[in-house]
């Protein structure tokens, strides 16, 4: 009979928020909903990611991305926000850094906007509500490691 240590365990798997070379992936969360920002923060923290900053509108998100560059690995971007929407902010971030990894976060029913964001260069899409923590993490990790 194999020893317990011979069987792989999910707890042995390194957290999804740790880079292959070590150190945490650094994330900027852009969302006008404090609840969603907090929920994303908890999901990221549970996997060892580092939330480097948050922004409550697209314009603030663009400013913070530029200030953090190049020490930023991922942005989660809400689509519907005051001051500047997420699609416009995505465009401005990609104008500044064509290699930026931005995942859009929004409710269902925004298919045309999601298509536009993908065409512009969004690397992924997360659907609100964020009920399925595992799916959220799968999307994030696939963008970072893909």
Strand neighbour order, sheet with most strands:
2-1-3-4-5
Mean pLDDT: 89
Order of helices and strands: EHEHEHEHEH
Please state the oligomeric state of the protein chains shown.
single chain
Task: Name the structural class.
Answer: alpha/beta
Largest sheet geometry? 5 strands, parallel
**CA-based shape:** globular
Please report which band the strand proportion falls in: under 5%, 5-15%, 15-25%, 25-35%, 35-45% or over 45%: 15-25%
Q: Terminal Cα separation, in Å? A: 38 Å
H/I helix tally:
5
Q: What radius of gyration results from the CA coordinates?
A: 16 Å
The number of strands is 5
- What is the helix content? 25-40%
Describe the 3D structure:
It is a single chain. This protein is α/β, with parallel strands linked by helices and 146 residues long. It contains five helices and five strands, in the order E-H-E-H-E-H-E-H-E-H. A five-stranded parallel beta sheet has the order 2-1-3-4-5, with helices on both faces.
């Amino acid at each position: 009979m194999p020893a317990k240590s011979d069987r792989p365990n999910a707890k042995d798997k390194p957290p999804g928020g740790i880079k292959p070379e070590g150190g945490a992936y650094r994330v900027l969360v852009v969302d006008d909903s404090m609840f969603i920002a907090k929920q994303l923060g908890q999901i990221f923290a549970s996997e060892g990611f580092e939330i480097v900053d948050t922004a409550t509108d697209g314009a603030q998100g663009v400013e913070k991305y530029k200030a953090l560059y190049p020490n930023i690995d991922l942005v989660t971007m809400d689509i519907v926000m005051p001051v500047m929407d997420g699609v416009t902010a995505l465009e401005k971030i990609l104008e500044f850094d064509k290699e930026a990894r931005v995942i859009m976060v929004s409710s269902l029913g925004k298919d045309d906007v999601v298509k536009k964001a993908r065409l512009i260069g969004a690397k992924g899409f997360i659907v609100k509500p964020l009920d399925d923590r595992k799916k959220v993490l799968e999307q994030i990790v696939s963008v970072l490691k893909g």
